[in-house]
Amino acid sequence: MLPRPLDSPLARDVAQAMIDGFNRHYRLFRTESARAKHRFETCDWHGQQRAQRERIEFYDLRVRECQKRLEREFEAHKQPMDVWQQVKLHYIGMLVAHPQPELAETFFNSVSTRILHRSYFHNDFIFVRPAISTEYLETDDPRAKTTYQAFYPQPGALSDTVHAVLQSFDLRCTFEDLERDCHRVARAMLNEWGADKPRPNFQVQVLSSLFYRNKGAYLVGKIINGFRELPFALPLLHRTPGTLYVDAALFGEEDLLILFSFSRAYFMVDMEIPSATVQFLRSLMPRKPRAEIYNALGLAKQGKNLFYRDLLWHLRHSTDKFRIAPGIKGMVMLVFDLPSFPYVFKIIKDWYPPPKDTTREQIRGKYQLVKQHDRVGRMADTMEFSLLAFPRARFEDDLIAEIEKFAPSQLEISDRDGDGQIEVIIAHAYIERRMIPLNLYLQEAFDAGPDDAAASAQLEHAVIEYGNAIKDLVAANIFPGDMLWKNFGVTRHGKVVFYDYDEIEYITDCNFRRVPAPRNEEDEMSGEIWYSVAKHDVFPETFGPFLLGNPRVREAFMRHHAELLEPEFWQQTKARIQGGEVIDFFPYGVHRRFDVNGGVKGAPELPDPFADISEVPVESNDSGGARINSDLGE
Q1: Which pLDDT tens digit goes with each residue over 133-149?
Q2: Is 381 a catalytic residue?
Q3: 115 and 76 in contact (C-beta within 8 Å)?
Q4: Pfam families, alphabetically (predicted)?
């Protein structure tokens, strides 16, 4: 039970120290994110990559700083239960008018769980549920921009509205041809909108900050007309340094889900009220969990916190059991899942059979490398957890036996909390989005046979996507190492994503060689290699026998990706990276780019359905005033 009187000055001082620690963290986080605008304007791509990597470390650094301060000034770990209860209550009071209360609650949890014993991890001492609502939270600063801005197109002047939207971001660059780009975007919007007639609430709402990632800046918003809302995003790129153009127009939830995918690097975006930005993005992508949106914005600890709450909620309302995940078992990772929950849980095994030669620390290092690297839409993001506890009754016996056999150091089964419930406690695990293993996806096509047109199309798509995934990874300076089909997965959007990281290396650390010619007939007939191989030597010609045993796969692969079997492809890309080039990646298809299809090249002229908006009657409400049609609350 929580104490009634707040009579401990020490508790208030501790709470103040914690909120000071969080404010310092978010001030530094926001400052670094805001600097992305200048780096974009000046084409400082290496600086952008460096900042994206370094920002990931900010949170843990600030948590450790705060923990050390609490121990140094207050001997926090020695304080009794009633003091810590009051600390939390004082902290809640400090969040009532705070612009980032949900992030501050998570920061409190991170600091306090480093200090308190695990038995204190419940409602009295940490924020198991949020205490402060973030609904309708907005800045009080009259000089600051609101989270989003609304623009109201005049009849027949949608292009002018696009012009006003683009100019509102005050980028210190010139557009190559702003009028052309505005016309292209307006035409694309009209194409998407179709023949819908205008309604009195017709407007364009745009988030006030651009989203920066890699070499692009993304304008994100939605068009509202009557009961219909159309999400959209406009990628802005440099044609030459300092000269911008709109590269494409993306529309609808599916396009934005790919843009904000879990397999891409985190955005940098300046947010005073992150919860308001997340709420706006949820209106564009209602199927995307809030946890993944926070992750995409670089707020990974908040995403992790929300994910865990979602997981506990799901466990409470489901009855299926954790099981060994379908697919070929890995040599390094033990993988399990809950069929009704769209994620997989990965545990590093205690030992690895030959030829694996690695350690737990090296594997964790590879996963950290991926976390900090640009994942270019081809590597799944992971959440790292320690001391995950689940009811024993939710685990299949076969799974428990598997963990006991391969990762006993990571397993504890006990009533450690003393509440009478036996739990399975996993010492360390990675959690990532579940995908269809690519080898199973291909097997479906094999089983259907070559005469099944749909299956043949599935096989062709899988092979094309697999090769594209490898090419994207190579361009991002990542050599996958183990390129077997089982180490890739297929997302629900049909993208092929890599998810086995224990053998990845930087392309620039590899030496790509051609297989030397046999010295004699004995070499040629031998099953053993006749040439020396150093640690980082890679022979692309040898990939074929391991990957292309199926004739249908081989035929498709050689038509689309034969260069992957030649060392020259790898050597040339390595040379480009070593030369300082930051290679372009596009989170949308080539067909969406205006440079490829001119936006609406060859399309007939379209009438502007909004040209007669002034003629749409305005309905009256019961009090005699004007009323605008709106789907608010419908």
Answers
A1: 999 998 888 888 899 99
A2: yes
A3: yes
A4: AceK_kinase, AceK_regulatory
